[in-house]
Every structure is written in C-alpha cells, then in structure tokens.
Amino acid sequence: MTNIERIKMETKGVGYPDGEISIYLEENNLNPDDEYNPKSNANKRGIYSTALALLESLANQPALLKSYKHDDMTVYDFADSLQSRIKMLERKLRMMQASDDTTSNSNTFMLFNS
After folding, report:
1. Residue 85, exposed/middle/buried by CB under 10 A (0-12, 13-18, 19+)?
2. What is d(CA 64, CA 87) in angstroms, rounded to the nearest whole number?
3. Is the pLDDT of residue 91 over 90?
4. What does pTM read for this prediction?
5. How many other C-beta atoms lie within 10 A of the C-beta of residue 108?
6. CA nearest neighbour of 56 among 23, 25, 79
7. In this structure, what are the phi and psi dihedrals at residue 2, rounded to the nearest 5 degrees?
8. Quick one: DSSP state of residue 74?
9. In the chain, which end has fewer C-beta atoms inside a 10 angstrom radius, N or C?
C-alpha cells in the first residue's frame, strides 16, 4: 500500500483529487508513491497530519457545512461531526511519539526530583 492509498483509506468519502492529496502528503514530508510503513511512527504521524490538513481544508469550505437531504435521510450535523473528527486527530497527533527513536520510551519529564 502506498502513502496515497493509506491517506485515502483514512479520509474515505472526502473525494480530493490525487494531485491535491499528493501536495498535502509532500507538505508533510511524505512521497505519495512510497510504500506506507505502519511500523514507522514518523510515517503514521505524517499520514495523520495529512488527514488533519485535508479535513481542515474541507472545514474551510462554508458551502459544505449546511444541512443535506438525500432521499429520506437528512444530515444536520456535518459541521459538528467534522470538527469532532478534527479534534480527535489533533489529540491523536499530540499523544503520538514524534520519531522512530526507540531509545526514549516516554514523552514525560520529572518536574520535581527527590
């Protein structure tokens, strides 16, 4: 699976063209055609950062944040759901280890030392 395929899996239904997705991936230091490495924290972080950027871009389109009616179904909470997903991705990124360095097991430090 390539990085572009992985980002499409993460953002199903968003529907950005491959060219735009490639730009977002490159902005997050990922080559769209490189093989996705699920064991690499840097690669996962880049994918989640790209997904966050795509969703934020989607949230910047006010025409999409209205209520939708399709057949018998109405979607009222698109904007709320989108903001919820953005907050979840931001939280996931904050909690994720920044690099693939296996020497440090913790992102915490001791403020008070006895």
Report:
1. middle
2. 18
3. yes
4. 0.75
5. 6
6. 79
7. -90, 170
8. E
9. C
